[in-house]
Each structure stands twice: as C-alpha cells, then as structure tokens.
C-alpha cells in the first residue's frame, strides 16, 4: 500500500515537471512562433499561457511593437550636383511573425540596410530644393522603396522621415547671402509700395484742399490744437499759405527776368564779337590795299597839259 502511494506521488511529480517544462508565457507585445521537430507551425501563439510538447516543440518570440530605427548619415550627390549628408529614421512593425522568423535571418539588420540604400538612391534622384522643402513626397517615396522588399518578410513600414540635411559650408554661406538679398528686396519693395500709397493719398488730399481752401485752414487749426496739447510752452504762429504762394510766384518771376537778362547779354556779346570780327576783316583788307597801292600808281595826267599850255601863253604874248 505504501509503495503504491509512493509510485502515485512520483508519477504526479513527474507529470508536473513535464507540464511545467512545456508551459510558456507569451507577453502582450509578443507573438510566439512554434517549431515542432524543426518545422514551423502555420499559426503563431497568441499572448497568454501556452503549452508546448516537451522535447518536440521550440518557441521563438517575435516582438510586434513599432520599431524606431535610425538610419546612419548617408553622403551623396543630388541631381543638381550638390554634395549633401542626409540621415533619416524608419518606423516599422512585424505583421506576420511566422514569415519574419522564417523568411529573413535578422529583419532589423535587413530593414536597416534597405533603408540606407534607398536613402542614397533617393538623394541621387532629387534636387537640393526637394530635400529642403518637398520632404513629404520624399518620405512617401522612401517608404515605398523600403516597403517593397520588407512586405515579403512580414514587415510593414509605417513611416520614413528625413531628419537632417547637412550642406557644405560654402553652400550655406551662399544660401545665407541669397536669403539676405531676398529679404532686402522684399523690404525695399514694401517700403516703395508704402511710399507710393502715401504719395497717392497726399495727392488726393492736395486736390481736395485745392478745391476747398477752407480745409487748409481747418488742418492748420487742428495742428495748432495738437501741438498745444502736447507742449504747452510751445508758441505756434500760423503762417498764411497765400504769402508763401506769393513768394513762390515772385521767385519764379525773378528767375524768368534773370534768365531773360542772361539771354540778352549773350546776344549783345555775340553781336560785339561779330562787330569786332568785321572790324578786323576791314583792317586786314585795308592793310592789303596799302601794301599793293604804290605798285599800281600811274603818271599823273596833268603834267602833259601843263607843257602844252606854255607855248600857248608864249604865242599869246603881244611883244615882238
């Protein structure tokens, strides 16, 4: 009787040991892939307590949480021949634990290598402006390039993002100068637009005041009131605008008179120069005439008649 009891106790203990050796606990964030005699079972074990056949089954736990994998910095040349360094981050998770455990040896390493090669490829196909501004399209392209091989491994790529783009120092300085010049251009355009609008409003106000002279007086009185409210010790003396207009007209008339006198003076000087030139020409002609006058002089016609008159007077003499 005692031997039977001992045998039952021993059998029960062995059964509990075997049962304990085959019992496994799968966490909520994991899935269990069971290999029976080296062959993977088609279905995976869900979270909770699961039992394995001792010495026949072996279970591998696969994490199904989203994995955040940083992609090391990759150096490449963009489509517009600019050397850049780009790093990214990949978010992925296991959707089929059986395929992730069978199809690929280390899916973390495989996804990392595919991400690096895809990132270098996307750098060579993109311009620098796309890397800096149009990143959403690049993220979609990267996710598609990485997800194509990863889908066969039971892995789904949730998102791929480019973290940083490192540019050469010379290019940074050039872009800084370009941005500064662009901001300066915008500031000048805004200032010029403000001046233009202010000039338009002033022109409209001047037309209104020219049509209604009383508006100028009202504006003057308003200015006096504002100055008196701010600085009580300031004395404001209104100056008639009509007097300024009189001075303006007088100044314009004086300028016209001065300009007229200048024109007349220039004409007189020109006439004097013409007269002086004429006198000089006459003097030159007279000098030439005096030079050639002795050579052209001929014998006087009065000498011969004098000789002829002497005999006449002799014949007229009454003396014998």
Describe the structure using short key phrases.
alpha+beta, 3-stranded antiparallel β-sheet, 320 residues, single chain
Describe the structure in your own words.
The chain is an alpha+beta fold. Helices cover 60% and strands 18% of the residues. The chain contains nine helices and eight strands. The chain has a three-stranded antiparallel sheet. Strands 6-7-8 form a three-stranded antiparallel sheet, covered by helices on one side. The chain has a two-stranded antiparallel sheet with strand order 1-4. A hairpin with a 2-residue loop joins β2 (30-36) and β3 (39-40). α6 packs across α7 (213-230). The longest helix is centred in the last third of the chain and has 52 residues, at 241-292. It is elongated, with a radius of gyration of 59 Å. The model is unreliable at 295-320 (pLDDT under 50).
Q: What ranges have pLDDT less than 50 throughout 5 or more consecutive residues? A: 295-320
The beta-strand count equals 8
The side-by-side strand order for the widest beta sheet comes to: 3-2-5
> Helix coverage percent of residues?
55-70%
Give a topology summary.
Elements: H1 2-22, E1 23-26, E2 30-36, E3 39-40, E4 48-51, E5 57-63, E6 67-77, E7 83-94, H2 97-102, H3 107-125, H4 128-132, H5 135-150, E8 155-166, H6 169-211, H7 213-230, H8 241-292, H9 303-315
Antiparallel strand pairs: 1-4, 2-3, 2-5, 6-7, 7-8
Helix pairs in contact: 3-5, 6-7
Compact description:
The protein has 320 residues and is of the alpha+beta class. It is built from nine helices and eight strands.
């Amino acid at each position: 009787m005692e031997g039977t009891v001992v045998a039952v106790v021993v059998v029960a203990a062995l059964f509990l040991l075997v049962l304990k050796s085959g019992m496994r606990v799968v966490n909520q964030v994991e899935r269990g892939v069971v290999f029976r005699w080296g062959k993977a079972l088609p279905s995976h074990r869900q979270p909770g307590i699961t039992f394995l056949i001792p010495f026949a089954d072996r279970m591998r736990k696969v994490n199904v949480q989203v994995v955040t994998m940083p992609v090391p910095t990759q150096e490449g040349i963009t489509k517009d021949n600019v050397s850049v360094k780009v790093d990214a981050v990949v978010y992925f998770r296991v959707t089929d634990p059986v395929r992730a455990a069978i199809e690929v040896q280390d899916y973390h390493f495989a996804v990392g290598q595919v991400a690096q090669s895809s990132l270098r490829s996307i750098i060579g196909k993109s311009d620098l402006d796309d890397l800096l501004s149009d990143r959403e399209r690049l993220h979609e392209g990267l996710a598609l390039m990485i997800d194509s091989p990863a889908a066969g491994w039971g892995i789904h790529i949730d998102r791929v993002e480019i973290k940083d783009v490192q540019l050469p120092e010379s290019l940074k300085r050039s872009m800084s100068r370009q941005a500064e010049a662009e901001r300066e251009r915008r500031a000048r355009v805004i200032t010029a637009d403000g001046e233009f609008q202010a000039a338009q409003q002033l022109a409209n106000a001047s037309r209104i005041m020219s049509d209604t002279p009383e508006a100028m007086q009202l504006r003057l009185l308003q200015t006096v009131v504002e100055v008196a409210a701010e600085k009580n010790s300031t004395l404001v003396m209104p100056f008639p605008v009509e007097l300024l207009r009189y001075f303006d007209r007088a100044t314009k008339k004086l300028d016209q008179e001065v300009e007229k006198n200048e024109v007349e003076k220039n004409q007189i000087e020109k006439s004097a120069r013409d007269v002086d030139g004429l006198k000089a020409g006459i003097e030159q002609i007279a000098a030439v005439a005096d030079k050639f006058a002795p050579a052209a002089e001929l014998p006087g016609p009065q000498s011969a008649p004098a000789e002829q008159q002497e005999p006449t007077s002799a014949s007229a003499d009454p003396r014998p």
